[in-house]
Structure formats: C-alpha cells, structure tokens
Amino acid sequence: MIGFSRDGDVVILELQRPDRRNALNTELCLAVRHGVERAERDGARVVVITGQGTSFCAGADLTGDAFPESFGQILEEMLVAIEHASIPVIAAVNGPAVGAGTQLAIACDLRVVAPDGFFEIPSTRLGIAVSNWTITRLAALAGGGVARTILLGGERVQPEQAFTCGLANKLGDRAVATQWAQSITELAPLALRHLKLVFNNDGIHEDPTPKQAAAFEAAWRSEDMREARRARAEKRKPKFVGK
Q: In the chain, which residue ranges form alpha helices assigned H by DSSP?
C-alpha cells in the first residue's frame, strides 16, 4: 500500500495503489500519516511523498470507503500530520493530483511537479463541498484567482501555470524532488522548524462560520451528491438541481 525507503537523511514515501491510480482510502491515509510520523521519529531530515506509476493521487477512492463518516476525519488527520511534522515534506507530483490528491500536495511544504502532473478538485462535479482548510490553503499557495479557477471554474491547472502562480515550487520528476530534498538536509533543522510553524500559522484552521458549516453539510447531504454518484456509476453526466 505504501513504500518506505531511506536515502541518507531523506525518506521517500510512495503511494502504491497503481491499479486505483493511488486513490486514497482509510488504509492508505493511515499509512501516509504513520510513514511521516515514523520518518520524523527515526531522525529523517526531509520526507518526499510521491505516487507509484503514472498518477500522484487520484483523490478519494469513490468505489471504496471514502464516503463513510469516519473517512473525512482520517483524511484530515493525515493532512494535519504532514503539516505539523517538524521536518519539511515535499510532494513529488509525478502525475495527476485530483481532489484529495491536491489536498495531499498542498498539505506538503513544497511541490515538485512533473510534465504529466496537474492539479484538479472536481468537487462541484461530484456535488460535494470541500473544507475551509482546502479553500484557504489553495488560495494562499496559488493565489485567489487560480484557486477560484480550480474550485469555482472546475478546471485543471497544468504544471507551467502551477509554477507561474507558485503552486509548484519546481518543475521536474522524482529525481529533481529527491535532489532538492538532499540539499535541504544540509540546512539548519531548527530554523526550518520555525519556518514551518510560521508559514502554517495562517488562520486556516479557524472554525467555519455557522453559515459556512450549514452550506457544507447541505452539499454533502444533498440529492445532487447522490445524483453525482449514480451518474458516475452509469457513466453519464449528472443533472444537478440544487437540492
């Protein structure tokens, strides 16, 4: 499910569900979280997260256990573990980062994007809402305009645009990400830890307002969400009615 390898002070975590394009289920979320925690516990200086095969992460596994109530909490705990790790975490986006795959990438401190990689959050095509954390973090990294393009416009952001707006810090493959990670291991760990604490203290974990929370719940409980799942199973476009 996940590969754990070490090269000096760099740990590489590889999502290993290529048959599902590395889509996240409960088991994989827990494996990523525990892998990051293990790397930090074992004294690694940098973690690189990447995907096996041609995809970085295709999002939540819609054919598995992604929709039970517990999945959202487990996904959030994985993202928080990455964010709260005292060492830098680099996403080597080797292919598409869709939905929760984009969430995984933006939870990391840095992103290296390969030519076949892109970012996409198709929540409005699935009839669901995304968390305040996702919206705010994406806007902070990519800028409000690009975040709106992804979320309101339902469009993909390709590598060159991601690099131009700052969502991608570098363009390149896993080797580029690993080489960068190795160079970061030579930097001062305490200074890096301080930088992470400051960068991540940006208000993204504030509680939603009552109106925001109600809108979020309404989307997840909607007939539109159920229609999107039916349409996906029947391989057709959903017909949304706003209920």
A: 26-41, 69-84, 100-107, 123-126, 132-142, 144-151, 159-165, 174-184, 189-199, 210-220, 223-234
Give the largest CA-CA distance in the chain.
Answer: 55
| Count: domains in the chain | 1
Contact 53, 96 (CB under 8 A): no
Residue 241 in any domain: the answer is no
Alpha-carbon distance of 205 to 218, in angstroms, equals: 21
- The answer to whether position 221 is within a domain reads no
150 is a domain residue: yes
- Give the residue among 11, 7, 97, 8 at the shortest CA–CA distance from 46: 11
Residues 6+ apart with CB under 8 A from 123: 99, 129, 130, 151
Residues 44, 7: Cα–Cα separation, whole Å = 9
Judge whether 180 lies within some domain.
yes
The 10s digit of each residue's pLDDT in 20-54 is 999 999 999 999 999 999 999 999 999 999 999 99
Return the CA Rg of the chain: 17
Mark 155-184 as b/e (b = at least 16 C-beta within 10 Å): bbbbbebbbebebbbebbbbebbbebbbeb
CATH number at residue 88: 3.90.226.10
Question: Average pLDDT of the chain?
Answer: 93
Band (68; pLDDT cuts 50, 70, 90): low
The whole-model pTM stands at 0.93
Range of the domain at 55: 2-190
